[in-house]
Amino acid sequence: MATLPSSHCCRIYSSSSSLSYSSSLHRSLQRVAVSPSPKRFVVSAKVSQSVLQQNGVSMQDVAPAVKPVENETAFKKLKDGLLSATAGSVEESKDSSGFSFEETGSTVSITVVGASGDLAKKKIFPALFALYYEGCLPKHFTIFGYARSKMTDAELRTMVSKTLTCRIDQRENCGEKMDQFLERCFYHSGQYDSQDHFAQLDKKLKEHEGGRIPNRLFYLSIPPNIFIDAVRCASLSASSGNGWTRVIVEKPFGRDSESSAALTKALKQYLEEDQIFRIDHYLGKELVENLSVLRFSNLIFEPLWSRQYIRNVQLIFSEDFGTEGRGGYFDNYGIIRDIMQNHLLQILALFAMETPVSLDAEDIRNEKVKVLRSMRPLQLENVVTGQYKSHVRGGVTYPAYTDDKTVPKGSLTPTFAAAALFIDNARWDGVPFLMKAGKALHNKRAEIRVQFRHVPGNLYNRNIGTDLDRATNELVIRVQPDEAIFLKINNKVPGLGMRLDRSNLNLHYAARYSTEIPDAYERLLLDAIEGERRLFIRSDELDAAWSLFTPLLKEIEEKKIIPEYYPYGSRGPVGAHYLAARYKVRWGDVGVEQ
Ligand code: NDP
Ligand code: BG6
């Protein structure tokens, strides 16, 4: 099978996807014509020849001649960024790190708010480096870490350098690239609720922007209780004067419908909806991104994608470790909020949506919302919760959830849950969508399993035996680890007899593709820089997701439902099997052949 030609960060989502890296003049013009920049800006169609010839850094494509709309209200102005525009005639200049600027163009400043934290170190800086390494970042960019901890630029670089890795297939110049990347990383120490401190950051950002049109991305990698302070200060004191300003917001987006709505309302005091990028990193995972391709570009799948042929769909998430280090956060949320209400539900929506009108962000998100709004809110009788308890294996004692010092004694917070969900629409009526998510289980895995119906009047029933369920086709999309798509089929065992077995038609990514799969954060950061919103959660999607789970969560908490205890490292509570059995389903990940 031939690989379709593509470049690693040349991503054209649709004919009107306005901000994609592209090599064609035609596409550049299209991008300019359909600008995704916040609606307050008027983008002139005048694009310098040099930009068009540049083969595609998107911000440069859209921002060469940007004129702020005339003053509307003080509030609007505030949202648009209060600082005076510094762009205009840009001369050949050097920023303070010594990078020389071209005569025209724009620049992107990425500020990681909460840079001293776990997520920043583990995911955000490594993802930014990977993008730089792959040549996916714009030519002119600067990265700032912002947090309260006192740190020099050099100390930030040392901290960041410890977690950077190179793509496995291109190691030769890794050290050199790391040095170049680190030279573009700076640090500013400040409080999250201080406009003055953000104004100091703004000053530094301007020095690096060197008079170019400044585009600014803020990544809120901080605990949710300080989101609003940080957004307020960044918006009032450090948003871009005449480029775009975008804010990536990490989950959790509230803990129920009310708190989520309050968060959205507060964010919208300072930002337009199209400036808010709510991240669900599962949407950035390669095989989740591939779901639509699989479905909509293969004739053999789409006709089968309904209640007519599908018996049930399973969305499974498991981790083979507990809440180590994050017990304080986790106890306030639990596995249903941490994994099901967002990661698994997002996958479900993508899986079950109708064909969107186009691949444009709004068309896809419209279809996802429709799925969520067609679903029945979860009922307590369709949910099983569990919590891991201590277990000794091979002389090693594995802790119980409540052994974590940051978890209150006697906590009833579920670390495991299984649920049956239903979509009441014509396509999916009566098909159980089963979710299972847990920590401290026997393996680490995320997968989608689609179990098809029995073959009516199967001529080979005699050869199959009594367990017909075992003989139905199953499509498995393994999101991680060891990404793969396989289809379980019945096949004749070679030989003179007529013995059937179940075999896999197997697309194993490591065997098929030599390129390393990018981390989800790379894709999402790149999308945010490009202004591509397809993989980010819109506020109405979020509302719909919370309305499915909020009544259930309230009931679990009010009734103080006791979770079923399961040993650390086991397969989880047996109740999950009874739940599945009620809908005549067997979990696909249990058994010898998986
Ligand atoms: P941390 O707890 O590590 O916090 C990040 C930084 O915020 C800290 O380094 C600290 O910086 C500052 N901070 C922490 N607590 C407070 C506080 N009470 N008041 C003010 N500042 C505080 O968070 P993570 O990096 O783990 O996560 C960041 C965000 O991402 C959170 O919203 C989290 O829910 C989300 N997330 C995290 C994941 C992970 O794997 N870590 C996965 C998915 C989402 P300083 O003291 O220097 O100011
Ligand atoms: C986060 C959850 O969103 O996703 C964590 O808060 C979980 O509890 C993590 O461990 C799993 O992400 P991944 O990409 O490692 O599967």
UniProtKB/TrEMBL annotation:
Entry GO CC: chloroplast stroma
Protein role? Catalyzes the rate-limiting step of the oxidative pentose-phosphate pathway, which represents a route for the dissimilation of carbohydrates besides glycolysis.
Family classification:
Belongs to the glucose-6-phosphate dehydrogenase family.
Keywords, alphabetical: Carbohydrate metabolism, Glucose metabolism, NADP, Oxidoreductase
What metabolic or biological pathway is this protein involved in?
Carbohydrate degradation; pentose phosphate pathway; D-ribulose 5-phosphate from D-glucose 6-phosphate (oxidative stage): step 1/3
According to its UniProt record, the EC number is 1.1.1.49
Extract the InterPro entries matched here.
Answer: G6P_DH (IPR001282), G6P_DH_AS (IPR019796), G6P_DH_C (IPR022675), G6P_DH_NAD-bd (IPR022674), NAD(P)-bd_dom_sf (IPR036291)
List this protein's GO terms for biological process: glucose metabolic process; pentose-phosphate shunt, oxidative branch
Tell me the enzyme class.
oxidoreductase
What the entry lists under Pfam families is as follows:
G6PD_C, G6PD_N
Q: Which domain of life is it from?
A: Eukaryota
Q: Which reaction does it catalyse?
A: D-glucose 6-phosphate + NADP(+) = 6-phospho-D-glucono-1,5-lactone + NADPH + H(+)
Q: Which residues form the signal peptide?
A: none
- Recorded source organism is Fragaria ananassa (Strawberry)
Any GO MF annotation of the entry: glucose-6-phosphate dehydrogenase activity
Q: Does the keyword Oxidoreductase apply?
A: yes
Write the protein's name: Glucose-6-phosphate 1-dehydrogenase
Keyword Translocase, does the record have it? no
Which residues are in the Glucose-6-phosphate dehydrogenase C-terminal domain? 293-587
- The chain positions of domain Glucose-6-phosphate dehydrogenase NAD-binding read 112-290
